[in-house]
Amino acid sequence: MTLEQLRIFVAVAEREHVTRAAQALRLTQSAVSHAVTSLEQAFRVRLFSRVGRGIELTEAGRLFLDDARAVLAQAEGARLRLADLGALRGGVLHIHASQTIASYWLPSRLNIFHARYPAVEIRLTIANTVEVCRAVHQGLATIGLVEGEVGDPMLDSRTVARDQMVLVVAPHHPWVLKPPKRPAGLTRSTWILRESGSGTRSEFEAALRHLGVAPIELRVAMELPSNEAVRAAVESGDAATVLSASVVAGALEAGLLHRVPLDLPERRFALVWHRERAIGPSGEAFAALL
Known about the structure:
The chain has 290 residues and is of the alpha/beta class.
């Protein structure tokens, strides 16, 4: 049984006339007759009685008519739903983003997307870079936004922004007056850092190695799971940290932190997606905004 057979059956039943149904559907009379006959033969039930030159529904036909109309209505509803999704008049966009991006870079772009496509629901999950890439790989996220490089060969990525990391300490830290002259001097302070797996941590450790300092040589007093927790701990303690310039901008302006000169490379913010999964119209529209 096909939707086309149901459509033909309903047209004939409503008109009780094959020729008129064929004209309404823009089909040949033989095609309409064949569709009805095929239904009757497939299920061994008479749907119409031939009375003189006309036809009329049998009892089985009358009962089946309600079901056929319901199925066609549901199919039309599904068609309209797909049309809405294609035109971004509905649906859900699942985004996973790392903390720095989600808290400081992404909100304004989410507002722009919502203004253009208000019917699309946005569901944002915040995690570290490793967790975001895992979610995209597993299909839990349509797209992801992460800091730094993406190591998963099943994920494609595109740079959407650049970010500067900075070394900061509290105003009473010794480095305010005597910053380290050489990279080796970085090991003389205690540190508070983001957790392993975060883009901030991995990019800082890569920068250390480039400077000739092994990350294991740092005296890490605390590992904290959020930028804000790290920033607050450094403001009130004696440790150093490296965070995004966006995260510490307000604290630097307020005098709660001091920036220590250190040549750190820019890192990228990257859009990531699974290379074997379609991201759909909403994902494509969002990616186009970045």
